[in-house]
Design goal:
Strand content: 5-15%
Number of strands: 5
Structural class: mainly alpha
Strand order of the largest sheet: 1-2-5
Order of helices and strands: EEEEHHHHHHEHHHHH
Radius of gyration: 22 Å
């Protein structure tokens, strides 16, 4: 059930934990993440078959994507919140919240590069084929942050589309989230802190942006193999994440930027370099596909 208060959205009927029996807990975030992975795998496998690639390689990459994504995102979150980690390392390691997606992308990318090199396939051919799945997985996965209220939301605001998560894993109730209440008082001096604080739904912003990216990746007639499709993904994703970080709760620690913004800049730079060098790769592909020139007997 969604309640509306002051023209803002309160996600009041949410159920962060769907099922609990003893130590077993199944949450809405985990279910949404599973849907995201399944959707990504189905789309990627279809792309592999469409481009006459080995689907067995796709399944290997899926494994590394899951492993790298989960471990890398947790490691970056720990790095971003290292003081809290030192205070209670066990709780942070095994918490159901606390993931920084860019860290997952970086580790997953490294592992997948190694696997593709081992297969003998050209990396940028596989990367061009794989990125639509990365987009749909991210777009759906970010919706999991909304349905669970896991604390990935942004700064307090009073915009018409702002949201609150009173029953989320990380509640927006001022009595249960003193740091958020203090931040509201800082951003809106002189105003009384509301019982339930409305915030920027930053995961929803990212999800919408990535669904638009997915449409472009699928509808544009990309030439596979040069890396342009992969480069476009990296630049779009990096720009989107860089700007949304300004209204998230992450600390700015590097030259006035968060660690995610620094990684976003690396994504953008990498995408630009890949795009700038794609013509040379496509020329090599054309040269390899061209029939050999038979010398004249005259």
């Amino acid at each position: 059930m969604v309640n509306y208060q002051r023209h803002c959205v309160t996600v009041g009927g949410m159920h962060p934990i769907l099922f609990e029996y003893g130590p077993i807990r199944i949450g809405t975030y985990g279910v949404t993440l599973a849907i995201a992975f399944i959707s990504a795998f189905l789309l990627i496998n279809r792309q592999f078959r469409k481009n006459n690639c080995d689907v067995e390689l796709a399944w290997d990459l899926h494994f590394f994507a899951i492993f790298g994504g989960m471990i890398g995102s947790r490691l970056l979150f720990i790095f971003e919140n290292f003081k809290a980690f030192l205070a209670d390392p066990v709780s942070m390691i095994f918490s159901t919240t606390g993931f920084s997606v860019l860290g997952g992308y970086v580790l997953a990318l490294i592992l997948c590069i190694v696997r593709v090199r081992m297969s003998g396939e050209p990396f940028f051919r596989i990367a061009d084929i794989y990125v639509p799945g990365m987009a749909i997985g991210y777009a759906i996965g970010r919706l999991g942050c909304i349905v669970a209220g896991d604390g990935c939301y942004g700064l307090p605001c009073e915009l018409p589309w702002s949201m609150s998560f009173p029953k989320g894993l990380v509640s927006t109730l001022s009595t249960e989230n003193p740091p958020l209440a203090a931040l509201y008082a800082k951003l809106f001096p002189g105003k009384p802190v509301p019982v339930d604080i409305h915030v920027h739904p930053t995961p929803l912003y990212e999800s919408i942006s990535t669904f638009i990216l997915l449409a472009i990746l699928l509808l544009v007639n990309w030439r596979i193999g040069g890396g342009r499709r992969f480069a476009f993904f990296m630049v779009w994703f990096g720009v989107s994440r860089f700007f949304v970080e300004f209204i998230r709760l992450n600390p700015f620690v590097y030259w006035g930027m968060s660690s995610s913004q620094v990684l976003s800049l690396l994504f953008i730079l990498g995408g630009i370099i890949i795009a700038a060098t794609s013509s040379a790769r496509l020329a090599r592909i054309d040269a390899a596909a061209a029939p050999p020139v038979v010398p004249s007997e005259d």
